[in-house]
Amino acid sequence: MGIIEVKNLTKRFKDHVILDNVNLDIPENKILGIIGINGSGKTTLLKTIIGFYKVNRGEIFYRGKRINKVSRSMKKEFGYTSQDSSFYNKLTVKENMYYFGTLYGLSHKDVKNNTKEILQFVELEEVKNTLAQNLSGGMQRRLDLACSMIHKPRVLILDEPTEDLDPSLRRDIVNVIKKINKQGTTVIITSHLLEDVENLCDIIAVLHEHKVMHIGSVEDLRKLYGKQEEIHVEIESANYDRIIQFANLKDYEKEENKLIVYTAEAEKTLHMILHIIENDKERLVYADIRKPSLGEVFKALTKKK
Predict the structure, then answer these.
(1) DSSP state, 38?
(2) Angle 93-103/137-149 helices, nearest 10 degrees?
(3) By the 8 A CB rule, do 23 and 6 touch?
(4) Domains of the chain
(5) Residue 82 burial (CB < 10 Å; 0-12/13-18/19+)?
(6) How would you write the pLDDT of the chain (305 residues) with one tens digit per residue?
């Protein structure tokens, strides 16, 4: 049994069904990623879990108790960061932390101690007296995280935490989230940036057509995809007919000027391909073995559906 269980959840707005009979078991101390196309209901699912939206049908349990029956004090075990910034631009970093601490009913002592500890943790201690509006984009995202952690929640729910950040800042936020999780916090995130999800999450739920279509690790999803390894080859002539013929390739595709081969015996197949290239005196541009990315797997799984 997970720390959070979603059972037969249906959520609709008037006659528009957003989530239909969704089931989800979220294990404690893990990072769960929820992925889906825009409009698939990712944000709605998060807001329903935290109690912002009421369910139309089904139940959500936290530590075995229905969310709507959970006491106010237990609800404080949740932290939430939305897609839009939750902090106040005209307050300093420290003032924002104090404000959110009072919202969670913390004592002045706890707010003070937690603020110092968390700002050090997210590396914002040196800018604690800076107005939030004057922070860089990456610092603002870390401030959002800090505000949602002021009460030291057991479950942290993050909606698109790396959106609109450049690759370097995205890596910074991913590393902060990993640090949070290592402290024993269960993390639930949504993201359309599948590279971040792949690098960050222990478990991934694919939300498609109002339901959780698949759930598991990246490796579990790759097994469903059925193409475990890819060989990427490019030769100068871009003529791959002889390679395909003499290597007896069955599952492949040509993409721009390269050949992609799907196989369960990548090393053996690549050795054969390189031997053919050498015999034909072709010039090899590059060759490597990869596992399919989460983006490729997601595209294939939702297309099959």
Answers:
(1) T
(2) 30
(3) yes
(4) 1-77+184-216 (3.40.50.300), 223-304 (3.30.70.100)
(5) middle
(6) 789 999 999 999 988 999 999 999 999 999 999 999 988 999 999 999 988 899 999 999 999 888 876 656 667 899 999 988 889 999 999 999 999 999 988 999 999 999 999 999 999 999 999 999 999 989 999 999 999 999 999 999 999 999 888 888 899 999 999 999 999 999 999 999 999 999 999 999 999 999 999 999 998 998 887 666 889 999 999 999 999 999 999 989 998 889 999 888 899 999 999 999 999 999 999 999 988 888 888 988 888 55
